[in-house]
Design a protein that fits this description.
The complex is a heterodimer of chains A (193) and B (182). Chain A has one domain. Helices cover 74% and strands 0% of the residues of chain A. Chain A contains eight helices and no strands. In chain A, helix 3 packs across helix 6, helix 4 crosses helix 6 and helix 6 packs antiparallel against helix 7. The radius of gyration of chain A is 17 Å and the shape is globular. Among the domains of chain B are: 55 residues, 3-methyladenine DNA Glycosylase II, Chain A, domain 3 (Orthogonal Bundle), CATH 1.10.15; 59 residues, Alpha-Beta Plaits (2-Layer Sandwich), CATH 3.30.70. In chain B, a hairpin with a 7-residue loop joins strand 2 and strand 3. In chain B, helix 2 packs across helix 3. Classes of the chains: A mainly alpha (193), B mainly alpha (182). The interface between A and B is medium-sized, with 18 and 14 residues.
Chain lengths: 193, 182
């Protein structure tokens, strides 16, 4: 049990998918203007990543490895991820039209979110079991959501701050992202032994 | 090879079938009038109405937050068609149907301040600081954003000039004369 807990903390904080592995930066900068849409995006991405990690594990171990089709890995993974994202899009459109409007173009872009494919491929590389794959995906996605929320909150404050004209807008956001990344480097000192 | 083709086909078929079922199950009822109105719109998404594209304008017209005369390129004909579709009567005599217009720069007044260049959504205005600007007619969508930005009122909307690239043979004019055999 504690092994799974450690896995969750490690993936969410120590090896944070955005700030340490630098995956999924597009929605990190794109959907972090307001906390509400950041939360929606984080939930949608969490759902997609967890589902995609499970689906790709089944695909890898039941189809690609037995048939020796390793070279089709990225192709099939993208196919499955795209299908999952389409499904999520339908559900969001039905369940919450406001969220659907707020996420806009970034919702279908989860398909090309490199964090989704990246986590699936890391799972293959690490040869994790099914539960571990799911947890790895879920933990990373929670880390993604957490960072997105923190960043969105900071940017909401930043919108009220007086920023020098040359730094206004995207530049100060990048500076902020760098500082946040530095802060998350601190988690590298966590020791569970 | 065969295994790869078969497994990919199977995977695609299963996913497609699943998504098809999900689309039926999670279908959202949309206003049928929006699609019908959107079909009437020019579809060029020029943005002159101030809505995000023709679909956005169609949604606004359907819910009543925009008038049927909102579309400049559609002109009088579109306004009449939309009014008929929505079952409202409208006085179209006041609607000027001047045809499409694009931005033009009066070069003798342009001071080269670059403000219109920054405003243009399609990068149709070329120019550098203290150089006379020019509008590239092929790129201009006629949104009119640049007009108010000009400090010297050098920007104005003009009817699309006829050039060698645009010119078409005029349609034959039906003569009203009596046929000779009558």
């Amino acid at each position: 049990m504690s092994e799974y807990l450690i896995l969750l903390v490690t993936t969410a904080l120590v090896n944070n998918v955005v700030l340490v592995k630098f995956l999924g930066l597009c929605p990190f900068m794109g959907v972090s203007k307001s906390v509400d849409s950041a939360l929606g995006m984080g939930m949608a991405t969490t759902f997609v990543i967890t589902l995609a990690c499970g689906a790709t594990w089944m695909l890898e171990n039941w189809l690609l490895v037995p048939l020796g089709l390793g070279y089709l890995r990225i192709l099939t993974f993208i196919l499955v991820i795209a299908a999952v994202v389409q499904f999520v899009e339908m559900v969001v459109k039905k369940a919450s039209p406001e969220l659907y409007q707020a996420l806009g173009i970034y919702l279908p872009l989860i398909t090309t979110n490199c964090a989704v494919l990246g986590l699936a491929l890391i799972n293959v590389q690490e040869k994790s079991g099914f539960v571990k794959s799911l947890l790895y995906g879920f933990g990373s996605a929670v880390g993604f959501t957490l960072v997105l929320l923190i960043f969105a909150g900071l940017r909401e404050r930043l919108a009220l701050a007086r920023v020098p004209a040359s730094f206004a807008g995207a530049p100060i956001s990048f500076v902020l992202a760098g500082l946040l990344s530095l802060a998350f480097m601190g988690f590298a000192g966590l020791n569970f032994k | 090879m065969i295994a790869a083709i078969l497994s990919l086909t199977l995977l695609g078929a299963v996913l497609g079938f699943g998504l098809g079922i999900a689309a039926k199950k999670f279908a959202v009822e949309t206003d049928a009038r929006v699609a019908e109105i959107a079909a009437l719109m020019p579809g060029s998404n020029c943005g002159q109405c101030g809505f995000p594209g023709c679909a956005g304008a169609a949604a606004a017209i359907a819910e009543g937050s925009a008038t049927v005369t909102v579309c400049p390129p559609g002109g009088k004909a579109l306004a009449g068609a939309l009014a008929a579709k929505l079952g409202i009567s409208i006085d179209l005599s006041g609607v000027a149907d001047a045809g499409p217009k694009i931005a033009a720069i009066a070069e003798e007044i342009c001071i080269g301040c670059c403000r219109c260049v920054k405003e243009c959504p399609t990068d149709a205005i070329v120019g550098a600081a203290k150089q006379i600007h020019a509008v590239m007619r092929e790129a201009c969508t006629g949104c009119g954003n640049c007009i108010d930005r000009c400090p010297t009122e050098a920007m104005k909307m003009e009817p699309v000039p006829v050039t060698l690239q645009h010119w078409v043979w005029p349609k034959p004019v039906v003569t009203e004369a009596e046929p000779s055999w009558a």
